[in-house]
Write a structure and sequence with these properties.
The complex is a heterodimer of chains A (154) and B (435). With 154 residues, chain A is of the alpha+beta class. Chain A is 45% helix and 15% strand. Chain B has two domains: 135 residues, Alpha-Beta Complex (Aspartate Aminotransferase, domain 1), CATH 3.90.1150.10; 267 residues, Type I PLP-dependent aspartate aminotransferase-like (Major domain) (Aspartate Aminotransferase, domain 2, 3-Layer(aba) Sandwich), CATH 3.40.640. The chains are: A alpha+beta (154), B alpha/beta (435).
Chain lengths: 154, 435
């Protein structure tokens, strides 16, 4: 597989063309993240269960390159799958996942994302070899992190 | 008299002078088509900077030892080289850190004049002051560096910032310009060549409008200096800026040209050592230009490197570079026009363009498009190229820019056009080879 094919795996191309989790409610608490270099944008919301303890859904809207858009879509898919399995994320679980994601993406190819934990989002491992694209893949995850921090009052 | 384009053999000889062109990227020979962002450096520039640091480095304009004298001479010789390159006097050349700083210098200085502060006892800055009712005019083409300083100057002085709009084809609306530039206009700031479309600004239409109302004209020559002979006096502009690193010179150095009487009337931008005559605990007297605008330790090896870059370009001949560029522009635009699903910002007519093209690939974000080129060793810029308003005007958020340099060959452009044609098919969209 060429470097380019590792970056643009079919899962990523599919998610960028047919993104999941798109659509925000008016007035919803969101985090808007931008990549000023190329204009990628993601506005993202975390939706919580009635008790406000677990994330049941990730919703977003955005525009930009296929990596940034696919990454947001894959995060939304992962949230949906976790909730469907009765394992909706507690804030600290989502935070740990974001930290792990960031560590792998910044590893320049030395750490692969664990498919058990990241599901289809593990396809984003290939991005870590492309330093200039790490920020694109991080955009949605940084938005989620920002929402967690704001919620915790940090 | 029209100069002859460079021959293939001449271009090959030029290429041999750029060490970086020998390297490979992703297993392919580097095809460097990002000269508009920063130019590569010929060996003579790298050697000049290195030689200065190895043999002549010392603090300039202070101290009396031999090295200090040699370093000062090298620095002032660099100024002389720039002055000759522009066809202006040495005291009309100010070294800055980059073109952005040069533009900020002008805007900040006019802001200071507007506060009633002068340039020193021997000069009167009052005529430069801006106030409510005055207008600053820019264009919708501008790089952010030739826009934001004027936004700030307007906000600080109460003046109004207006702009000459761009038409759908990416050209300036000259009819609107004739309405916008008027009695209230105090300053016109305009780029010489667009860093997005590569179009050469019709200064012969714009500058007389400003002249007729006594407005100052500031020219951003960053994108023209590497491609066309640059003669601020013939262009009838008051101030002009360009950067060293786009001119095959080092980063960390830019040039401000200013008409001598004007520079002498302008208040300083940065204050400190090396720009004063007499200092008391209460006040200071300033040196005349250019020293008034060069406080602190100047950029020595960078100035020496820039002078080497200019001598390199003069050796090739700017008129011959311009003639070659014209051919490359026609080849590049013609090739891109034949690729399905590709839109060239500013259109594909090569008249009045340098060899630079920004494209939007239908259905593929610029960032993804650029990745396909990088895979085969082609360096091109993706993004908004610090010109968000122009991209917005032309209906794009980002584009992929291919920009040629003095070392660019037709074969390299063909490789790039072929790679552009492969972008849509790679992402599963209809494409096809360039016909």
């Amino acid at each position: 597989m060429s470097g380019l094919e590792q970056l643009y795996q079919q899962i990523i191309l599919d998610h960028s063309k047919h993104p999941h989790g798109v659509g925000l409610e008016p007035g919803e608490v969101t985090s808007h993240q931008r990549n000023p270099v190329c204009g990628d944008e993601v506005t993202l919301a975390l939706r919580w269960d009635a008790a406000g303890e677990r994330v049941t859904e990730v919703a977003w809207e955005g525009s930009g390159c296929s990596i940034s858009q696919a990454s947001a879509s894959l995060l939304a898919t992962l949230a949906e799958e976790s909730a469907a399995e009765g394992e909706a994320w507690r804030p600290e679980e989502l935070r740990a996942l974001i930290d792990e994601f960031r560590e792998a993406l910044r590893s320049r190819g030395s750490i692969a994302l664990d498919e058990e934990r990241f599901g289809d989002a593990a396809a984003l491992s290939g991005v870590s070899r492309f330093v200039a694209r790490v920020k694109c893949a991080m955009l949605a995850w940084v938005a989620a992190e920002d929402l967690l921090s704001r919620r915790a009052g940090v | 008299m029209t100069a002859a384009p460079l021959t293939s053999a001449e271009i090959e000889a030029i290429r041999a002078q750029f060490p970086i062109l020998r390297r490979e990227v992703n297993g392919h020979p580097l095809t460097y088509l990002d000269s508009a962002a920063t130019a590569q450096k010929p060996g003579v520039v790298i050697d000049a900077e290195s030689a200065f640091l190895r043999t002549a480095n010392a603090a300039v304009n202070r101290g009396a030892h031999t090295l200090a004298g040699e370093a000062t001479e090298a620095y002032e010789d660099a100024r002389g080289t720039v002055a000759r390159f522009l066809g202006v006097a040495e005291n009309e050349v100010v070294f800055t850190s980059h073109a952005t700083e040069a533009l900020n210098l002008i805007a900040s200085s006019l802001g200071t004049a507007s506060l009633g502060r002068g340039a020193g006892s021997h000069a009167d800055a009052a005529p430069l002051a801006l106030r409510e009712g005055d207008e600053i005019v820019v264009t919708e083409l501008e790089h952010h560096a030739n826009l934001i300083p004027w936004q700030e100057l307007a906000a600080r002085t109460g003046a109004t910032l207006r702009y000459v709009p761009v038409l759908d084809d990416g050209s300036l609306d000259l009819e609107a310009a004739a309405r916008i530039i008027g009695e209230r206009t105090r300053l016109l700031a305009v780029t010489h060549v667009s860093n997005v479309t590569g179009a050469i600004t019709p200064l012969d239409a714009l500058v007389p409008l400003a002249r007729a109302v006594g407005a100052l004209v500031v020219l951003d020559a960053c994108q023209s200096a590497p491609h066309l002979p640059l003669r601020p006096r013939e262009l009838d502009v008051d101030l002009a800026v360009f950067s060293g690193h786009k001119l095959y010179g080092p980063t960390g150095i830019g040039v401000l040209y200013g008409r001598a009487e004007l520079l002498d009337a302008m208040p300083p931008f940065l204050y400190g050592g090396s720009m004063i005559t007499t200092v008391t605990m209460e006040r200071a007297e300033y040196l005349p230009a250019p020293q008034r605008f060069e406080p602190g330790s100047p950029r020595l090896s960078q100035a020496v490197g820039l002078a080497a870059a200019i001598r390199f370009l003069e050796g090739v001949g700017l008129d011959r570079i311009a003639a070659t560029e014209h051919e490359l522009a026609a080849h590049l635009l013609g090739g891109l026009a034949s690729v399905p699903g590709v839109r060239v910002l500013g259109g594909v007519d090569p008249a009045g363009r340098v060899a630079l093209a920004s494209i939007v690939v239908d259905g593929v974000h610029a960032h993804d498009a650029g990745q396909v080129l990088d895979e085969v060793g082609i360096a091109a810029r993706v993004g908004h190229h610090c010109a968000q308003p122009l991209h917005r005007r032309l209906g794009a958020t980002a584009s992929l820019r291919l920009s040629a340099g003095v070392h660019t060959t037709v074969a390299e452009l063909d490789r790039a056009i072929e790679a552009v044609a492969s972008i849509r098919p790679f992402f599963g969209l209809d494409g096809g080879a360039a016909s």
